[in-house]
Amino acid sequence: MIVGSLLADLEARAKAGEVDAIRGLKELDLLREMHDKKQVNLVFKEERSYRYGKTPDLDGIVRDVALTEHGILFTRDAVQAQVARIMGVGVRYLPPEQDMEVKWIDDYFDDDVMSVHLRAGTRPRVKRGTPGNMCIQELCEEISGEIELRLLGSEIIERCHSSSEGFLELERGGSTVVQLENMRIVIAQPPFADGYEITAARPVARIPLDQYRLSDQMKERVVEKKRGIILAGPPGAGK
Question: Which of 31, 149, 199, 233 shows a CA-CA span of 20 to 30 A to 25?
């Protein structure tokens, strides 16, 4: 059950740039998609006692809804859990260490991995080697789950918003492109793709300009102009 005042509070704090609220909305969005797929039953509950512009007692509102709806309150707040039990509300207290572990994108890289390719329903794969000398390898037998990848995608976007070394390059029609530290990450989902997938690439070689087979005129243009140049080549060529 989604409580209206809680959703309104998350909305306001997400607009203010609070990372926890941004992640909270992403996870509620994931629950909504699971509801649409009939994996869970999600209900929206608005409370007439809540008024926008006033500071609501969110803990009290959530406890009241759980009590009147004969529901079970899941919380990581030990005090909230204790008060709810005193009121006779069914409670499941989840200590912070029980958070779902989501593998971070950096964990898939090592020194010679050029890019990581994750897709729901398939095994994680990496492109290993150097430009012009690479191969595709499966990392393990475990199949990537859609929920796991969506949580990772949420974490990537959250870090993009909160990091001074990250920015959102594109977000449109099921495609999100993020530059985060030295990684360029593409998150794709329907209708842009036929499944949820994450691709992350990073540079593995730094080659001096003198080692490229370019004319002196072209090298001078790259150094001085840095505009009006098109780079083309097949994947893995080092563009």
Answer: 199
